[in-house]
Amino acid sequence: MFEIVFASVFLLLVIVRYGYMRRFETFQGAVVPVHRYHKRFARFMHVAMYVCLVLLPLTGLAIAALYTRGIETGLAMDAAIGLHGVSADLSYALIAAHVVAALYSRLKGEGVWTSMVPVWTETGPSTHPYAVKAADLEHHALQRLEAFVASKKR
Length: 154
What we know:
Elements: H1 2-21, H2 36-68, H3 75-108, H4 112-116, H5 129-153
Helix pairs in contact: 1-2, 2-3
C-alpha cells in the first residue's frame, strides 16, 4: 500500500512541478547569450526527464493494479515492467546529464546555476581560459549544427 500512495503523491508532485516550471524560459537567469539550439536541447532534456518521471509512477501503479487482479505474468505485466525499468534507467541517465550540465554551466559562469542553487553563486561569466575555451568550442559546435540543419532545409 505504501508504494501506491508514494507513486500517487510522486506523480502528483511531478505534474504540479511541470505545470509550474513550464511557465518559465529555459536558461532563466542566464547572464550570457544562450544559443537557440542549446535552449532547444535543454528543453528536450527537461521534457524527457519529466516524461520518465511520469512514466515511473504510472507504470508502477499499472504493475500494482495488474498484480492485485492476479495477473502476475503475460504481455501486459511484461510491458509494464519493461517500461518501468527503461524509464527508471533513462531517468538516472537524464538526471546525471542534468547535474553535469548544471555544473558545466556553473563553471562557465552563465548565471543559470545561481537561479537554481543558492550556494556557490556566480558573479558573472568566467574568465578562466579553460572555461572560455569550452564556451567557444560549444558555440562553434552549435553554429555548425545550425548551419547543417539550415543546409538540409534547402
